[in-house]
Amino acid sequence: MARRRVRLIFGRDLVTEPVIYHLGKNYEVVTNIRRADVTREEGWVLLEMTGEPDELDRGVTYLESRGVRVEPVEGDVVE
Amino acid sequence: MSGLGNGRRVIGMRCRECGTEYPVQATHVCEMCFGPLDVVYDYDAIRKRISHRSIAAGPPSMWRYRDLLPLEDEVPVVTLGEGFTPLIHAERLGAELGLRNLYLKNDSMNPTNSFKDRVVSVAVSWARAHGFETIGCASTGNLANAVAAYSARAGLEAFVFIPSDLEPGKVVSTSVFEPNLIAVRGNYDQVNRLCSQLVETYPWAFCNINVRPFYAEGSKTLDFETAEQLGWRLPDEIVIPIASGCQFVKHRRAVGEMVDLGLVEAGSRLPALTGAQALGCAPVYNAWKEGTETVLPVKPNTIAKSIAIGSPSDGSYVIRIARETGGVVEAVTEEEIIDSIRLLARTEGIFTETAGGVTIGVLAKLARAGRWKGDEVVVAYVTGHGLKTADAVAAAPSPGRRFEIEPTLKSFKESVNI
Fold it and tell me: Model ipTM?
């Protein structure tokens, strides 16, 4: 099992869509929200994802396919 | 938090968001809320031992401020003589910009010619002292140079991850130190993700990931030096380039520490901290302009690659600090970056890299817009040497005077009007 700490960033179109629910339902990924700030216009969620590495990759691909921006919690580290 | 009074200057780590406390360890994220962790010092103990005299008795390097760095006395530091770089009264540039008290902190004078030597010296020292045998980083330039050099100096293994399409010329000043250079076939985001996973997999000290809380502390020394070189007073404003924003947060911490510990006059006003970005990678500036603290990631597209962080970890804190201190966040175009590199070179004899062009560009833009009356003490942090990004200037037509002549006095006299 592996885990990833990610920051999900939603635009207005996705604020009302239950993407984290679908992530947990359709993939073998355990999700755990640690912090979030969601308004009518936009939102971000700090999420822990646990699962097999391939399944985590598939989960991230799913989120991105829905238009969610997925970033490591530490942001960009290539300086 | 326990540990007070045992002679240790560092007593733990604390989450900046939820306040959860942790023992000192190589981790950067709070397990509870995923907020960033900061080093916690025993300021009561530090207050008893730090003074202008104790600092002056220290080495002529940034390690004279060791009492405010996260390494205990018994820890041997890995040093190449970083810090204590010149603070120059920029009279000619100041005259162009209407600033009589403009100063430049020339951090291109560091051992590998950038500000990164400060933070990497702390990170590598900390890592070695805590049993790490391998140092890692992902970088397209300055950070890689510093990590490779300081790891060589420390006798530690280094793994430097770079995008595989990075021009060979850019890696010479890193590969000369013989680190393990890993060229990743993938885009910038994929290199980022790989590094986050590596940290979870290998027992390495990754400079700007799991040891970031210690690494970032090194940037405070820029502010300590600036104040000391100004005769232990704080400037009115500091213009600072923004990449991830984590250094900006530490500049705020440093000026606060100097006030709280009595190193500057009691009641000294904090300097306005102003952030500089390139418009080609300006996520923090975009949020500032929109009046929000939510910093949305961007795809970097700028010649100022050393500060081109599209998803800055500490962007929202930069906005809060700029607001709190009366600073601003401003951005400049690619053309303004090049013009500013030339302006600085022409007026002060300092050749800075593109990130320095961003800083000077923002300084000039704000000055010309009438931000200052003229007598304020304004400091700009020039964080890297121009030879690192000489291509950027070489690519644009030079306005410099060049004459081609025959090897005769006659030809010289005919060609050059003296």
Answer: 0.93
